[in-house]
Amino acid sequence: MTCRGQAPQIHASCWLAPNATVIGQVTLGPESSCWFQSVIRGDVAPIHIGKRVNIQDGAIIHGTFEQSETIIEDDASIGHQAVVHGAHIKRGALIGMGAVVMDGAVIGEQAVVAAGAVVLAETVVPDHTLWAGVPAKQRGAVKAELSQHLAATSARYVDYSKWFNPEQS
Prior knowledge:
Blueprint: E1 9-10, E2 15-16, E3 21-28, E4 33-34, E5 39-49, E6 54-55, E7 60-62, E8 70-72, E9 77-78, E10 83-85, E11 88-89, E12 94-95, E13 100-101, E14 106-107, E15 112-113, E16 118-119, E17 124-125, E18 129-132, E19 137-141, H1 144-164
Parallel strand pairs: 1-3, 2-4, 3-5, 4-6, 5-7, 5-8, 6-9, 7-10, 8-11, 9-12, 10-13, 11-14, 12-15, 13-16, 14-17, 15-18
Antiparallel strand pairs: 18-19
């Protein structure tokens, strides 16, 4: 949907659930997916989503007018009902179910924000670390087993999206 003269740029290989909402200045990279009732609202600030990113059911991606843009790099996963607001999510990071990541926060490569955590504005989460709590604090390193799981998550979501879009199989 166009807003303020800006229309989303959605790569042909993306999958959007029928009730996903993508508005305004949004770029969705190849093989990304926006799941049921997700909202990616680029009405007040740009949103850049890389390759093979999955925005899961009920997640909200937004920013703050004239203050923040949202960047979600390749292979990141945004969990069910998570909120990413004007933050930078780096390659392969996981934002857990119901987590909130606020303006100016930077989530490092293959870092994990646990379910229900709240990452405050301007927080920098180092690469390969696990953050949990309200407010979120570092709880340790992402262990090898979880790191391997993260590396496979984006590929699994590309496969899942093909269940709904068989012509891309």
